[in-house]
Amino acid sequence: MSELNEADRYLLEQIRGGSSEGWSQFVDRFEGRLLSFARSNARNRSDAEDLVQETLISFLRALPNFRGDAGFETYLFTILRRKIIDAGRGRGVHVCLLQDVLNSRRADDSNASDARMAAPDPTASWYARRDEQREQRKRALAAALREVVDHYKQSGNFRDLQVVEMIFYSQLRNKDIAEIAGTSHNHVALLKHRCLARLQELVGADVPVSDDGPTDDLVSAIWQEQRLSCLKRSTLGAYLLGTLDEPWRQYAAFHLDRLGCSFCRANLDDLRARDAEDRQALRRRIMESTVGFLSRT
Ligand SMILES: [Zn+2]
After folding, report:
1. N or C: where does the chain have the smaller number of CB atoms within 10 Å of the terminal CB?
2. Rounded CA gap, 33 and 73, in Å?
3. 202 or 126: whose pLDDT is higher?
4. Residue 255 alpha carbon to ligand 1 centre in Å
5. Ligand 1 being an ion, which residues bring their Cβ within 5 A of it?
């Protein structure tokens, strides 16, 4: 299933055809959010800029294999995340700030291994299709997981979605999740069990995970890769303008501020910067068109 809309596919065709205009549009659209994400993970601005540049080069190189299984943004973020990990020689990149906070709070927890934070290399493992059967299983599980997450959203059950998100997306421990959600350890375990049971029902096979997180399983990998509970750009825009209705507003605040999703925060930074640019342009236009009237008053 392609995640690209008609405009995306048109842009992709232009880029594949070697259009520099199309490529410039693409870079303009994504460089801000990529840079913001890179800056929160790189040593300095110049390293961050190099990483973004390399990410865009990788995107072009992998263009023949790009199938649109993920949207542009998700695909680019996955490449960038991989590059940050490689640049840091194995240091993990967390998907949200809460992981950093909780991991530093329990410095003795050796389970917080770097390996489980490592992002896959999308240009290699996602699209090379070296193991078609494994890819098919993964796609089936991804579709099932998307259905489960969509069900939470559509039924407005954001309270449970937040718990399940902390289990799989943020890979927090049940104990920490219970504390944050203001619920019991048992309730967290129950929600996890229900979610896995539904997934098993949908894919018709076992979905192996550990009983008490952090989990290093396929469900987490898929959730992180595809960012199933992340906010759409339009939703972030509405949040920024203060026009987002409940319960979405509350969920967006949780995802951005409590969980501290690194991808969505980078996206929000980019939206804020563009908003500031637009306002500067508007001010210039207003000044140019009005300054002539000053002397007449
Ligand atoms: Zn997010």
Report:
1. C
2. 9
3. 202
4. 6
5. 230, 261, 263-264
Peptide bond into 64 cis (omega under 30): no
Three-class DSSP labels, 214-264: CCCCHHHHHHHHHCCCCCCHHHHHHHHHCCCCCCHHHHHHHHHHHCCEHHH
- In the chain, the domains with their CATH numbers are 1-93 (1.10.1740.10)
Mean pLDDT, the chain, integer: 85
Q: Is the pLDDT of residue 116 over 50?
A: no
65 CA → ligand 1 middle, Å: 26
Distance from the alpha carbon of residue 290 to the mean position of ligand 1, in angstroms: 42
* pTM for the model: 0.80
Instruction: Report CA(30)–ligand 1 centroid distance (Å).
Output: 16
Q: How far is the CA of 235 from the centre of ligand 1 (A)?
A: 11
